[in-house]
Amino acid sequence: MSKLRRTIAYIVEIVSCAVMIAIINSVSDRELASAIWLAFFAAFLFVNKYTRDSLGAVIRTLFQPAIYIPLGIAALYAYGEIFLLSYVGWWSVANLKTTILWLVTFAFVTMFEVATAKNRKAGLGKITREILSVAVFVTFIAELYSFPLIVELIALPFVTIVFVTAEYAKHRPEHASVAKLLSYLSGVIGFFYLGFSLIKSIELWRDTFTWENWLELVIPVILSVAFLPFLYAWRIYVAYDGVFTTISTFGVDKALIPYARWLSITRIRTDLDLLERWRKSIQSARPAKRAELKHTLTALLALKEREASPPTVPPKEGWSPYLAMQFLADVGVETGNYNHIYDDDWGASSQMRELGKGDGIWRNNLAYYVDGTQNAATVLKVKLNVNVTTDRIEAEDIFLVHAMHLLEKAVSLDAVERLKMQLASLKDFQADIPFGSVSLARENFVGGVIKDGYSRIFTLKRGG
């Protein structure tokens, strides 16, 4: 038996050495340089008392069940993908480094992106497009060959500073010129890395165009595509968890929560937009009984059917709310849903669209409002808030474009031709349109921290 144990131990040792050699050989000088700088950075964090305490808090946070359980489940799902690829002979230990990097930089990161995206459907679509984009191939080529280790060690801090600073400046309007310069420099650096790797790929084409390199390219893509069903399920779980966590804070009887879960699972299913709208309806209605809770969902389902087939609204009564919501879609303005507000009042509005560079604190903004009754929109408004008067000319030009576009869509092109001079003057006026009126008004800000600020409101009215 002792001889058998020694033989097994010897085989395990050989296999372990082979695994380690395969992993080491797969690490490029660029990745090694990154690891060295990361080790130095980690050492600095541990040496400094302040950062050591903060790092400890971050590590403790990562070991919360709400964090490590989803990540553990994702890792098990990824293991299933790897097992299937290994079964068909497409994955080996030589791909372990690439797989670990994929798990950390794609799987875990996209889980966070999906969970925090304001529009979860759009977030998942963005991830899918990125997986299948040309950028994946370009990145692979750029990473295929690296410079000598000493060059990578020197270049990495400089490149990192340029890219991080460029990204920071991009979100600071006052640094627009710096952002443009750094963006250009980032592009030059990227082309330099890509060009070097491309030239090496051509020179060493026998080493480049191999089955192993092909697998290194396609395995992350296959793993990413196969991970999409998990992300879809994760998106649904996060949405449901968020909704029922907030519902419990609305003052709704806790005894109704299980019934609400059952209604959502059986009636809403995977329609996350409908689920979010139901959450807002519950927050507004605050049902106290099962029948009231069910009515909030029944009314919402009926509203969604009406949205799918909007009823015709005679011009003398106003506009179809669902058509009015789309009047400014051509200029990039989207509204939320047309919802019940109070008594007989219904409405929808867009998000505030920020305009101009601002003064570092405030920026001008513009929004679109649709108000009316359940069956007809009777008031359409474009409202501009001028918070920074130095940027008012650009903001007012954009306001006029939106106002004229709304007038054309809601009334007619003839109305635009008739009223464009009055609109362009930006003076207050009121005029008639078929079955209603159109007006432009200025309202100065009174009090508050913004001096000399004002609003311009372009309003169309019918019916009501």
TrEMBL record:
<feature type="transmembrane region" description="Helical">
    <location>
        <begin position="100"/>
        <end position="117"/>
    </location>
</feature>
<feature type="transmembrane region" description="Helical">
    <location>
        <begin position="62"/>
        <end position="80"/>
    </location>
</feature>
<protein>
    <submittedName>
        <fullName>Uncharacterized protein</fullName>
    </submittedName>
</protein>
<keyword id="KW-0812">Transmembrane</keyword>
<feature type="transmembrane region" description="Helical">
    <location>
        <begin position="153"/>
        <end position="169"/>
    </location>
</feature>
<feature type="transmembrane region" description="Helical">
    <location>
        <begin position="214"/>
        <end position="234"/>
    </location>
</feature>
<feature type="transmembrane region" description="Helical">
    <location>
        <begin position="32"/>
        <end position="50"/>
    </location>
</feature>
<keyword id="KW-1133">Transmembrane helix</keyword>
<feature type="transmembrane region" description="Helical">
    <location>
        <begin position="181"/>
        <end position="202"/>
    </location>
</feature>
<keyword id="KW-0472">Membrane</keyword>
<feature type="transmembrane region" description="Helical">
    <location>
        <begin position="7"/>
        <end position="26"/>
    </location>
</feature>
